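Pilot study result, target chain (202 residues):
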Amino acid sequence: MVELYVVRHGETDSNSQKRLNGGLTDLPLNDVGVAQAERLSKEINIEDFDEIYTSPLIRAKQTAEILNHGVHDVKVDERLIEARYGSWDGASEAELMSEYPEVFDENEFLFPEYKKYVSDGEDYDDVYKRVDEFISDMSKKGDKKIMAVCHGFISRSFLKVITGAQNISAIVQPDNAGVSKYRLSKSGTRFLTYYGRQTDID
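Predicted structure:
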């Protein structure tokens, strides 16, 4: 059975400034984010992993390299890129909430209906499809331990796809450098072990 560890990248300036940090915003980690990734690296024995995948965005690749310590060949997978929010990508969340309060849920995450206002934004269902495809491919790898370094909404999408949760707003985002663990069987059965940990990574 595959053990899949989904890691959210460390903090960026757009995170700390509370801007929509989507797939069209490509910033490096800030000093806090680097420290978060370095702390997490001490909780993980990278030698135990067989493969590491990362989103192509700088913040995820940088987090993956810090965790990897040069041990593995880190593989870039486009399916792990953050949801693309089109013309809203990088915008102030506070300003958007003030102008479009109806598209934010109680946890200040965008409802899927945000697409009514952003014609060039990525549809959530398309995000779920690429995440599901990635999970299916990983499940065929046998008894491997795999890390996937990605993003906040992608981390939420993994949980939604694997558990079959109906409402994405019921799933909160893990903190930066939070780790979620899943188990994937060859038969297609998927299990959640834990969500959003920063310590006790086993």
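One observation from the pilot: DSSP finds six helices and six strands in the chain. A full batch analysis is planned for the follow-on phase.
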